[in-house]
Amino acid sequence: MPLVMHAPPAGAAEHAAASKASKASKAARTTTGTLVALPPVVQPGTTPASPRNAGQVIATFAPARAGRVVQLERLVGSTWTVTSRKRTDAWGSVAFSAKPGTYRASTSTSTGAVVTTTPVVSRTWTPSFQDTFSSSSLDLSVWNDQRRERESVYAPRTCARADAAARRVEGGVLKLGLALDPTMADQTCTYTTDEGTGQHSYLLTSQVSTENTHLFGHGIVAARMKPQQAKGMHSGFWLLPEGTRFTDGDPSAGTEIDIMEFFGERPEGRETIGSFVSYYEPGWTSVQHGGMFGKARRALSTGARWWDEFHVFSVEWTPTEYIFRVDGREYHRELNAVSQARQYVVLSMLASDHELDDLTPDELGQTADVDWVRVYDADAIG
Fold it and tell me: Is the pLDDT of residue 1 over 50?
């Protein structure tokens, strides 16, 4: 029987080419990319380090996939010039150092389609405020230990009061901790929660602020921190309005902006960061937006927990929104309750009544470590 060679139907090659082009076009449509220019807020690591000065651009491609090759280009005259290539992390994101200029980023999809971000402009970033805790003690011309006495109504913290004895500066970091209250050494505190009544030793907590020295408006506020492992306490980096004054029902007059709160280890190993914005309605009724964000765990190195590493936590606070980030990666955007008031920075380690059942004496030596704090006001953002 003769071997018959069948030619492809007329137009088959054109159809295959069109199909391939269609798939590439679809991939380009379903893969999206963004590029954002930020001050140097990407600095993970296991040891203290000086803050960086060069601006950074963060490219993110969705759907998130680790390992994509991303190419960064800088506009030189009228020509786009490749400056760097890196692979994406678990966020589908990659950070590049960027001297002042115009940049764009691109990546290729599995079908060969190229997805390119909208260009952004990187600029020189000059902080309006910073502290690197490089002295042997806390700079009291900048920071004040806030007076927060024991109370059982609002927080409540029946068994704890803030005191300078619970914090220290050591090795280039501010260490925020708890301590036993020596003035109440022979007494036991009784507290009540929704779960019942408990008893605990009286405690000292840490809470320092720029309340009397530096107030800030819209901008980017960032701190490089490594939180504690222990439960029974929570570390925090937050902003409060000038005079710690709230106006009932009017968040524009000032809010509590919790950039980062961490409540310690969880048995399932899924502990994460909380970010919240709060204000009050009449009758001291709290209204809270935000939550705990598991997505933030993508910032952790393989096998690491939050207390193993420093990360930069930041909020970009504008007239219309708050953008919460860890190492430059956005994990929450809040459009509600945007403050238009001047606010001050607070760093703390606190122990509320509802946490005390989890706090054991051997954990009192644990601290949250703050490597540096920086503020870039709105003029720096441009």
Answer: no
Question: Is pLDDT above 80 for 327?
Answer: yes
Task: Please report the domains of the chain, with CATH numbers, ordered by start residue.
Answer: 31-122 (2.60.40.10), 129-381 (2.60.120.200)
| Global confidence as pTM | 0.91
Segment 27-77, tens digit of pLDDT: 456 899 999 999 999 999 999 999 999 999 999 999 999 999 999 999 999
Omega before 227 cis (within 30°)?
no
Tens digits of per-residue pLDDT, 145-196?
998 888 766 678 999 999 999 999 999 999 999 999 999 999 999 999 988 9
> What is residue 148's predicted lDDT score, i.e. its pLDDT?
84
Tell whether the model's pLDDT for residue 10 goes beyond 60.
no
Mean pLDDT of 7-26: 50
Beta bridge partners of 57: 37, 96
Separation of alpha carbons 92 and 31, rounded Å: 11
pLDDT for position 268: 83
Q: 275-280: list long-range contacts, CB under 8 Å, 24+ apart.
A: 275/315, 275/324, 275/331, 275/332, 275/334, 277/251, 277/322, 277/334, 277/336, 277/337, 278/337, 279/246, 279/250, 279/251, 279/254, 279/255, 279/337, 280/246, 280/248, 280/249
Average confidence score pLDDT of the chain: 92
As a whole number of angstroms, the distance between CA 309 and CA 224 comes to: 10
